[in-house]
Specification:
The complex is a heterodimer of chains A (239) and B (908).
Chain A (H helix, E strand, L loop, with lengths): L9 E10 L6 E11 L4 E5 L6 H8 L7 E6 L2 E2 L5 H11 E4 L11 H9 L8 H8 L14 H13 L5 E5 L7 H18 L2 E6 L10 E6 L2 E7 L12
Parallel strand pairs in A: 3-8, 3-9, 6-7, 7-8
Antiparallel strand pairs in A: 1-2, 1-4, 4-5, 9-10
Chain B lengths: L11 H8 L1 H38 L5 E5 L5 H9 L5 H51 L4 H18 L1 H47 L12 E5 L2 E7 L8 E7 L7 E6 L7 E5 H7 L6 E4 L2 E11 L19 E6 L1 H6 L4 E9 L6 H21 L4 E6 L4 H42 L1 H10 L3 H40 L13 H26 L4 H6 L18 H12 L1 H34 L8 E5 L18 E11 L4 E9 L18 E5 H7 L6 E6 L5 E10 L6 E5 H7 L9 E4 L11 E5 L1 H44 L1 H10 L3 H39 L12 H28 L3 H6 L2
Parallel strand pairs in B: 4-9, 6-8, 14-18, 15-17
Antiparallel strand pairs in B: 1-10, 1-11, 2-10, 3-4, 3-7, 3-10, 5-8, 6-9, 7-8, 12-19, 12-20, 13-14, 13-16, 13-19, 15-18, 16-17
The chains are: A alpha/beta (239), B alpha+beta (908).
């Protein structure tokens, strides 16, 4: 991996991606370019089909672009083979999905340990459980938890390995208003506390208020790429 | 530095075990039982075979034995021990010279005197007449006067006595000289003629006894008497013979016995009998038995080293521990008995063979030496059996070896089936957990870590089952197997030994099979990208065409969809049932086959008794005859059908014209080289009419080729039939020579000493009886085991089908379908498939079993066709169906238990 200290932490350059072929070919990303600085809370906004989840998956190394590149700390993802991509995800990324995808027969603590296992230097699980507000629930199984609690567990699983980047794909998509705000607050707190770079995909315009960096996508292109100098706490978000 | 966290996924394993404990309990029990039994079989077999092998030295097992018609004298035994071939040519020459010297002079003299006298008289008369003529001429008579006076002058000379005096003088002078000259010439001519004959005879012998084998090396041996008598045994002293007992005199030299109970005989009224036979006959130490006409006290139960199975004849397909026995008495006890002594001599090579090939080579070299020596010493070899070919010594070990091989294969197949069931279950779990797997992969879990995780369960279950199975194998099942073998074989006492082979076959191989099958399927399943897992997009073909179904009723189409969706499961089910059906064919077919042959044994005998005589002439040279009504002479010889792998003894019969016992229409019109063969011969060796079969003499290098003209159905043995005249020609017999009598009545007027053997219905039924005794009851257990096996397999696979459809079932409940209707949809489709698979596998399984039976039988002497009765087929079908019906009850309960919120919980 080539290192380039002068460049941004995360750089996305002329990224293109299409699905299908012939008549069914659909261009999802049409030459996206922007960059994200280390420790930023970046929100990818856009309607359904705008390409934001595809972009997140490419950043996460679980999908690949047709052209263009993504570099993290100067390392281009396209240069990595499958094994090194896995190592990249293992060492640098945390993933939070709309559906929590927890392991049903492991309790809260153990589900978080699943993430901790991947790291050589994981966060203290007890402390994290307190941060997540799950300490009292640590021995419960996922099916004994509410949706919000389950999402907290999934965030805990992602963050416990202290990743450089936390990727969140519609993390509040399946939650009610109050719980969503709690989760957003939690992600904001984590961003603050652990200095993780957060990239969150959402179609909820209101969430941009708590972000440092807002990238708006439509039809596979960046329509707006702006920095927010007037961040507000998650608790004050309204939608 | 913080301590590295152990893989938390490991914690799922005990929870999953507990969560689905019924399934894992059934699988574990199944594996434990199978592994335990096979492990027990390996441990028991190995221990017993080791004991038997150790016993060979301890109990002085022979390297072979031979039987002679007469007791051998010291000179013959000494010659046999040398291992050298006799000089057959010198023997023929000496024999011919002494015969010539004995008979020539007398025969020559008579003929010479007749010829000489006639010739001398003529010559003398001519000479005498010319002398008188000369005398008359010297008197001055003219030729005409001489001619008229000469007859009268000759007459007067003869009357006066001068003639006779002159005659006698001349005769006495000429005779000795002429005799000597003629004798020498004639003797030389006769001897030359004999030498030519000897050359021809020797050339024949050279081929017959392989005298010119360049590889021949003398095989020195030690020879021991191992005489026996075959006596009738009455083990409950009710006056009726219960079977045959082969009685040996106690010896310390060769073929000793292991004492299993009691003690060896010491007095002439004491006997030790075979432990196996005693068990079967209910005889115990302390009982008395009647042997021949003598009563003996049973003082011991033994296992002779050379009779680990009670084979009465080496050619018997099956041993007979029910009606055949071997026993030991003292020398005096042996003399109390009256049946003919079989002059059996056991030999041991002075130089032990390194392996079986070397042993075979030694035996091949020893045979011509033995044959030529017995010919030279005027005896006759009637049996020759090297130990490697002795069924009574090897059958048990071979059978145990075969059982181990079959047990190993069955275990492997069952493990593979279970492994596939495991793999399908895991594959479904992976599908079910695809989003979680996608998340883990996206978080950095490697494929290898997840593959290892999913492999843990089958490996742990197999490891546990193997450990528990081996513990049971060394304890419980070993004893079960040992008792099974002690129920069939006369084996010496054994000690349990650690068996690394059992560990490999019942632990390492099952583990490897389970690991590899699951690895292959899990690795394939894990090839999907994290994104595909996250999307739950694990179908092989992304644009799979939906099969269009005909316009059936809704329920029928629904069921068809379920069937199409579960084709891989139904395929595994098919192969599982198919394999079980092969075993079930064995379990059901074996008793069917034995019953069939027991019931039809009489129909398969062309005469109730076949009396085979020692010789067709008695000591006085008169033909052995019987007044028994209907007794018919026949000829019989035993030849061999040899192949590289197996040589089988074939009975060749010469049948009288218009035989009342064998009705073969055109038998008498057969050409000299044409024969009929039994249907058993036809079936075993796939012979057709017009084929030529080549048979060989057992001990001699002589071949016979016969053209098959037809088949004779009423014979169970592997036999050849030809007219008695053709037989006598083919085997160089005398005009009226025969081998014995066929009769439907017992013949009582032939001296026992003249009878070599009697073939009766028992010779056919004893095999069935023994098989029934050894395996019959186990077949019932085997049937139950097969039902359980099929039920377990069906249970596991239908469980997968229902679990896979849990969401859909839950949804149909939400829609308002009743449990009965849902069961009708999901269970009936499986029932339909199962019934079809059941029926198809009954046909296929029995077909494969019959083919396998043919292969197995080809390595044994004799033949019988594997039979499954129509009821047997129905049983096979019903056994699997019954297993399924039980499982269906569980499945119905499982469907009832699926909650309605299942579909809602799992909906995205």
């Amino acid at each position: 991996m080539m290192k380039n200290a002068e460049k941004s932490f995360l750089e996305i350059a002329d990224l293109k991606k299409a699905f299908g072929s012939g008549d069914t070919r659909q261009e999802v990303l049409r030459g996206l370019s922007f960059s994200v600085e280390k420790g930023e809370f970046c929100v990818l906004l856009g309607p359904s089909g705008s390409g934001k989840s595809t972009l997140l998956n490419i950043i996460g190394g679980i999908d690949s672009a047709d052209s263009g590149y993504i570099s993290i700390n100067g390392d281009k993802l396209e240069d990595l083979g499958e094994k090194r991509l896995t190592q990249y995800r293992r060492k640098h990324l945390g993933y939070v999905f709309q559906l929590y995808n927890l392991i049903g027969n492991l309790n809260v603590r153990e589900n978080i340990e699943v993430g901790a296992y991947l790291s050589d230097d994981p966060l203290d699980i007890d402390e994290l459980l307190h941060t997540l507000g799950l300490y009292e629930h640590q021995y419960k199984l996922p099916n004994q938890l509410s949706g919000g609690q389950q999402q907290r567990v999934s965030i805990g699983r992602a963050i416990v390995k202290n990743p450089d980047i936390l990727l969140c794909d519609e993390p509040t998509g399946a939650l009610d208003y109050t719980t969503s705000k709690e989760i957003l607050k939690l992600i904001g707190d984590i961003n603050e506390k652990y200095k993780s770079t957060v990239i969150m995909v959402t179609h909820n315009e209101a969430i941009k208020g708590m972000a440092d960096h807002i990238v708006k996508l439509r039809d596979g292109k960046v329509r707006r790429n702006e920095h927010n100098d007037h961040k507000i706490p998650a608790a004050e978000l309204e939608w | 530095m913080k301590k590295k966290i152990r893989d938390p996924l490991v914690k799922r394993i005990p929870r999953e075990l507990l969560g689905d404990w019924r399934k894992y309990l059934i699988v574990s029990l199944f594996l434990i039982l199978v592994i335990g039994f096979v492990s027990g079989m390996y441990v028991a077999n190995e221990s017993m075979v080791t004991a038997a092998n150790t016993g060979k030295e301890k109990y002085k097992l022979e390297d072979g034995h031979f039987e002679l018609t007469e007791k051998a004298d010291d000179a013959l035994l000494s010659a046999v021990c040398s291992g050298e071939k006799a000089d057959i040519k010198a023997f023929y020459t000496d024999e011919a010279r002494s015969e010539l010297d004995e008979k020539f002079e007398e025969e020559f003299k008579g003929e010479f005197v007749r010829e000489f006298d006639a010739q001398f008289a003529d010559e003398f008369d001519t000479t005498f007449e010319s002398q008188i003529r000369e005398s008359l001429a010297s008197q001055g008579l003219k030729e005409k006067e001489i001619a008229s006076m000469l007859p009268e002058a000759v007459k007067q000379a003869k009357q006066s006595g001068d003639y006779q005096i002159a005659y006698d003088e001349a005769y006495n002078e000429a005779y000795p000289k002429a005799y000597d000259e003629a004798y020498r010439t004639a003797y030389d001519e006769a001897w030359q003629e004999i030498l030519t004959e000897i050359d021809e005879k020797y050339a024949e012998a050279q081929e017959k006894y392989k005298l010119d084998d360049p590889d021949f090396k003398p095989v020195p041996v030690d020879v021991y008497e191992n005489f026996y008598r075959n006596e009738k045994e009455d083990n409950n002293n009710d006056g009726k013979a219960d079977g045959t007992v082969r009685v040996f005199a106690k010896t310390d030299d060769i073929n000793l016995a292991c004492l299993m109970d009691g003690r060896f005989p010491e007095a002439d009224n004491e006997i030790a009998i075979d432990r196996m036979h005693a068990d079967n006959a209910g005889v115990k130490v302390g009982d008395s038995v009647t042997v021949g006409s003598e009563s003996f006290n049973v003082v011991g139960l033994i296992a002779y080293v050379n009779y680990s199975t009670l084979h009465e004849k080496n050619t018997d397909f099956m041993f007979d521990a029910l009606k055949f026995n071997v026993a030991m008495v003292t020398e005096d006890g042996f003399d109390r008995l009256e049946s003919t002594v079989h002059y059996v001599y056991a030999w041991n090579y002075k130089n032990e063979a390194a392996d079986e090939n070397a042993e075979k080579k030694l035996a091949d070299n020893f045979l011509p030496a033995l044959l030529t020596q017995t010919v030279v010493y005027g005896n006759e070899l009637t049996d020759y059996l090297p130990v490697y070919a002795n069924q009574a010594v090897h059958f048990a070990a071979d059978d145990m070896g075969g059982d181990m091989a079959i047990g190993g294969v069955i275990l492997d197949i069952l493990i593979v089936i279970i492994a596939f069931i495991f793999a399908v279950t895991i594959s479904n779990t992976i599908t079910k957990e695809s989003k979680t797997i996608g998340t883990l992969r996206a978080s950095g879990y490697t494929k290898g870590e997840l593959i290892r995780h999913y492999l843990m369960m089958p490996v742990i279950v197999t490891l546990f089952a193997a450990a528990a199975g081996n513990v049971l194998g060394y304890t419980v099942f070993k004893n079960v197997v040992v008792s099974m073998y002690y129920n069939s074989y006369s084996l010496p006492a054994y000690e349990t030994i650690w068996n690394p082979d059992a560990f490999i076959k019942t632990t390492l191989i099952p583990l490897a099979l389970m690991f590899l099958v699951n690895l292959a399927i899990i690795v394939k399943k894990m090839q999907h990208t994290p994104l595909e897992f996250l999307r739950g997009d694990l179908k092989k073909s992304k644009r799979k065409k939906v099969v269009r179904l005909p316009e059936w009723k809704f329920f029928s189409r629904f069921r068809m969809r379920i069937i199409l969706q579960n084709i891989p499961n139904y395929l595994i089910l098919f192969f599982g049932i198919f394999f079980i059906m092969i075993m079930l064919s064995m379990a059901v077919g074996m008793p069917n086959t034995l019953d069939y042959y027991k019931e039809n044994a009489a129909d398969k005998m062309f005469a109730r008794y076949q009396y085979v005589l020692r010789s067709w002439e008695d000591e006085d040279g008169n033909a052995v005859i019987t007044e028994c009504d209907g007794a018919e002479p026949f000829c019989m010889s035993s030849l061999q059908r040899k192949s590289e792998t197996f040589s089988e003894e074939i009975s060749v019969y010469g049948i009288s014209e218009n035989s009342r016992y064998l009705s073969i229409d055109d038998l008498n019109s057969l050409d000299e080289d044409e024969v009929y063969i039994s249907d058993s011969f036809r079936d075993k060796y796939s012979v057709s009419v017009g084929d030529t079969v080549t048979l060989e003499e057992k001990y001699e290098n002589k071949r016979y080729r016969f053209k098959v003209a037809g088949f004779y159905e009423k014979s169970m043995s592997i036999s050849v039939f030809m007219p008695i005249g053709n037989f006598r020609t083919a085997f160089d017999l005398e005009k009226d020579e025969f081998s014995g009598y066929l009769s439907d009545k017992e013949i009582t007027d032939i001296d026992e000493e003249n009878i070599a053997t009697v073939i009766t219905e028992r010779d056919i039924t004893k095999m069935c009886d023994q098989l029934d005794h050894s395996m019959g009851s186990y077949m019932q257990y085997f049937q139950v085991l097969c039902i359980l096996l099929s039920a377990v397999m069906i249970y596991l696979l239908t469980k997968i089908i229902i679990e896979k459809n849990a969401n859909a079932i839950s949804m149909t409940k939400i829609l308002g379908y009743e449990n009965r209707e849902i069961a009708d949809l999901y269970l009936r489709s499986t029932t339909m498939i199962l019934i079809i698979e059941d029926a198809v596998t009954v046909v296929l399984g029995s077909f494969v079993m019959k083919k396998a039976w043919t292969v197995v039988m080809s390595e044994y002497s004799g033949w019988f066709t594997f039979q499954i009765s129509p009821v047997g087929y129905a049983k096979m079908f019903l056994f699997v169906l019954i297993g399924y019906l039980v499982v269906m009850a569980f499945d119905f309960a499982r469907i009832k238990k699926i909650p309605m919120d299942e579909a809602l919980k799992n909906a995205e």
